[in-house]
Amino acid sequence: MLAGLGSVDAIAAGTTPVVVPPAVTVLPAAPAPGRADPGALVALVASLVAVLTLFLSPFVAIPLALVALVVAILRVRRPSGRSTLAWSALVVSGTTLVLSTVLGLLLIAVGDSSPEPGPVHSEPAAER
Fold this sequence. Notes:
Blueprint: H1 2-5, H2 8-15, H3 38-52, H4 58-77, H5 84-107
Helix pairs in contact: 3-4, 3-5, 4-5
């Protein structure tokens, strides 16, 4: 029966798994810390200006924060653009929009704001 299976080396080679050496992947070199992404820098500056002008002029701050948020989202979603500046702009502009929403909700009057009727004081008519 052993003669039908073949030699011992053939049987051992058939049952031993073949070890494949792991593939070595070479990662691309990290980008040199040179210039910052101009779009992310513009988004960060716009979001900071929006935060600073929120209390002075919310009609300017809210659209500015929206533009900064859109630019920051576009910069973060780029394959090569996951920079700290873009994430900072995203957080600051999002915080500005949330803060403006909270401030807007706090300005809404809660309840009935109609004045209560009270006693009316009138000047006595001058007698003639």
